[in-house]
Design goal:
Layout (H helix, E strand, L loop, with lengths): L18 H5 L5 E5 L9 H5 L10 H11 L5 E8 L4 E12 L2 H4 L1 E10 L8 H15 L4 E4 L6 H6 L23
Parallel strand pairs: 4-5
Antiparallel strand pairs: 1-2, 2-3, 3-4
Length: 180
């Protein structure tokens, strides 16, 4: 960023991301919180390696960014290729506040994705490390994630262990917006 460029409107403070993890990124890449202008840097494009992504336009994306930018709840971060100013990796941890364990909290890691052109550079591992750091430094007593059986070895390399079984029930396809 040059002196004439405005500061980015970040989802959370850059200080929450582990400097040690950032130092381990390949040259030319940087890690930072998601910014309100990241729609134009390809945020949805990178997420599309995970699942179907409905692009509802920049205004809708910014509205969702604002909804997620709740203090101490959602932490979406990105890895940006500095040469192209395009996002090449993404991930999120959200904090669930509980009544259990003395009103403890749990970090849930979601939506880890790396652009196909950048895979094999340990960017996914760096995203997991950074999100785990945020979760642990937020006071969470554990950090959890769901993954396919094929991805278990990757997450084990990141320090996670297989625990229990995930269950899911998908809502039927809607023809209208939810009421909540």
């Amino acid at each position: 960023m040059t002196a004439t460029e405005p500061a980015l409107d970040l989802m959370f403070s850059q200080d929450l991301i582990s400097a040690e993890v950032v130092k381990q990124l390949p040259p030319g890449l940087t890690m930072r919180p998601l910014a309100s202008t990241d729609y134009n840097r390809g945020h949805l494009s990178v997420l599309s390696v995970l699942s179907v992504v409905d692009d509802r336009g920049e205004d809708a994306w910014v509205a969702q960014f604002r909804a997620l930018a709740l203090p101490k709840t959602y932490y979406c971060l990105v890895i940006v290729d500095q040469a192209t100013d395009k996002i090449v990796g993404v991930g999120t941890v959200f904090i669930e506040f509980k009544f259990l364990r003395g009103f403890g909290s749990v970090g849930h890691i979601e939506d880890i994705a790396v652009d196909k052109s950048q895979q094999g550079k340990k960017l996914g591992m760096r995203i997991i490390q950074a999100l785990t750091h945020i979760s642990e430094n937020s006071g969470c007593y554990k950090t959890i994630l769901n993954c396919s059986d094929a991805n278990i070895p990757f997450y084990e390399k990141c320090g996670y262990t297989k625990k229990e079984i995930e269950m899911a029930k998908y809502a039927p396809q809607r023809t209208h917006s939810p009421k909540l």
